[in-house]
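thread: overnight batch results

M.L. [08:02]
morning all. the overnight job finished for the chain we discussed friday. pasting input first so we're all looking at the same thing
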Amino acid sequence: MITDINALTIDMLRFALLLRVIDLPNLAQNYESQTLKLRWSDPSSQDVEDTREWVRLTIKGGAGGLGDMFVHRRDEGT
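M.L. [08:03]
and the structure it wrote out:
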């Protein structure tokens, strides 16, 4: 599978902007840094896969993950 690095990095920058909007500037900065590494180098397929794994970890489910912070949960009594 061929990855379009330009499209990937643009998506990552957009996501970083959203992270800033929801007041997660440190995570946004990490996304921006990862993006610059990919964009200004000649990334190998392993570099791209490592970045994908890093993204998966940042949006993982469970306690403390982004989904846990922003998914609406109904109270048990309602």
